[in-house]
Design goal:
Layout lengths: L2 H10 L4 E6 L3 H9 L6 E7 L3 H10 L4 H5 L2 E3 L2 H6 L5 E4 L4 H13 L3 E4 L2 H18 L3 E3 L4 H14 L3 E9 L13 H5 L3 H6 L4 H8 L2 H14 L11 E2 L5 H4 L14 E6 L16 E6 L3 H9 L10 E6 L9 H10 L11 E7 L8 E3 L6 E7 H7 L8 E4 L22 H10 L4
Parallel strand pairs: 1-2, 1-4, 2-3, 4-5, 5-6, 7-9, 8-9
Antiparallel strand pairs: 7-10, 10-11, 12-14, 13-15
């Protein structure tokens, strides 16, 4: 609240919020589309491995020639982070390695950073956030993306005095999707490979949404930001519509499908036989709250919340999210308020690599959405105990021991990656594991 008013005060004082964007893909382009209609918000530089692609993105979203001419275009995100006229850095590359490098550069330069790159955040976000806090800058989740919206709902519930039983999002899921590869992904989206190519859609990226990897990454990030539990054997992806959230996601001790309290979970828009779920939440987010007393439970019913049979559990949900078009909320929250829109605080969940097929010695892992592995969310302490291989590191590594289909890979199953800043940050995260 009052973000726009704060922005206008900055503008009136001749201090617009100046932003540097790294990565001009879909998320970045959606953000760019809103900049001309947000007075006081300026993008001074866009860094992309292909600067011409970034210029085309600006044209595509309706920027004027005057605005494009006034913007710097470069290839080097780290140099953008050091630019004197950049106050807030948006990291939207999707590459864990690049995201970590840019976050560290921004923190070192005293710049706020909005981390669209959930892949980097779930790999080392708690450590990056800790470093940012020590440096006096904001490290923030990206509003508009589902993890930040979930974090907002959890914060709302706790600030209002409700217990948080479960929080998460919806997606399209069937168990067989875990083994889908880029070759067959478009069948599940109702597209031909030709039509997808014409639209510039990346098959491996879109497959990471389908095979469960993106859900694992996002829910681990939410657990780390909201101090919530990850189910011991991974997400359940229960078929569930908005009217049944409170019933399905209450604790098993009260008749639900969730073990314990305070968990992250994803619900599916498909029944297990492929039929659509009634009033599904495929594009949205939710929080299931618990009434602290009988009076509050009575109010749940009186005001029309979807409740379970006991009346103690109720659901609040947001059916849609607008991705990058909402990203300005994070930018302004950091610059105007000095606050993140969600931030990793502890190491509660990890996203680890699971074999899509039998892997043999000499095979090379190809990362999220590829042919070899999918990402599974598990508790951080379990990941550390098993020395599980994070999905963010499961790219380009050669397999040194045979791994059966469906098994979680460990660091001993692959060639050791070179020691570097990622290893250092992962070590820092162990101290944040609760």
């Amino acid at each position: 609240m009052n973000l726009f008013q704060g922005l206008q005060q900055r503008l009136d004082a001749g201090r617009p919020v100046r932003v540097g964007l790294i990565g001009s893909g879909k998320f970045g382009s959606m953000f760019l589309s809103q900049v001309p209609s947000t007075p006081g918000l300026e993008v001074v530089e866009i860094a992309d491995l292909a600067p011409d692609r970034a210029r085309k993105a600006c044209h595509a979203v309706g920027w004027s020639e005057e605005r494009i001419s006034a913007t710097r275009f470069s290839e080097n995100g780290s140099e953008l982070c050091a630019a004197d006229d950049v106050e807030v850095v948006i990291e939207a590359t999707g590459s864990p390695a690049a995201g970590i490098r840019h976050a560290l550069a921004a923190i070192h330069a005293g710049k706020h950073i909005v981390m669209v790159n959930v892949e980097a955040d779930v790999l080392v976000g708690p450590a990056l956030a800790s470093r940012a806090r020590r440096a006096g800058v904001v490290y923030s989740m990206a509003y508009g993306d589902q993890p930040a919206l979930i974090a907002e709902m959890v914060d709302w519930a706790r600030a209002a005095g409700f217990g948080v039983q479960a929080a998460g999002k919806g997606t399209k899921y069937l168990p067989g999707y875990h083994e889908v590869t880029p070759d067959s992904v478009w069948d599940h989206y109702g597209l031909t490979a030709e039509h997808a190519a014409e639209a510039g859609m990346n098959s491996q990226m879109f497959n990471s949404f389908l095979d469960g990897t993106k859900s694992a990454i996002e829910m681990a990030a939410v657990a780390n930001a909201c101090d919530l539990n990850v189910p011991g054997d991974g997400l359940g992806f229960f078929p569930c519509g908005v009217d049944d959230l409170a019933r399905t996601l209450r604790p098993s001790s009260d008749g639900g499908l969730v073990a314990g309290r305070g968990v992250v979970e994803v619900v599916s828009s498909l029944e297990r036989d492929g039929r659509p779920v009634f009033r599904d939440l495929r594009w949205g987010v939710y929080v299931v709250i618990e009434a602290p007393n009988a009076y509050a439970a009575g109010c749940f019913r009186q005001y029309g919340l979807p409740v379970d049979s006991t009346g103690r559990y109720a659901a609040m949900y947001k059916p849609f999210h607008l991705i990058g078009m909402e990203l300005g909320i994070s930018v302004l929250s950091a610059a105007v308020r000095g606050e993140p829109t969600g931030q990793a605080r502890a190491f509660r969940g990890d996203a680890v690599a699971v074999a899509k097929r039998d892997l043999a010695v000499g095979d090379t892992l190809d990362g999220e959405g590829g042919y070899t592995v999918w990402g599974k969310a598990i508790p951080a302490e379990v990941s550390l105990e098993r020395e599980a291989l994070p999905i963010g590191l499961a790219h380009g590594l050669r397999v040194v021991r045979n791994v059966q289909r469906g098994a979680t890979l460990t660091v001993e199953d692959v060639e050791r990656p070179a020691e570097g800043v990622v290893s250092e940050l992962r070590m820092e995260m162990k101290s944040l594991c609760q």
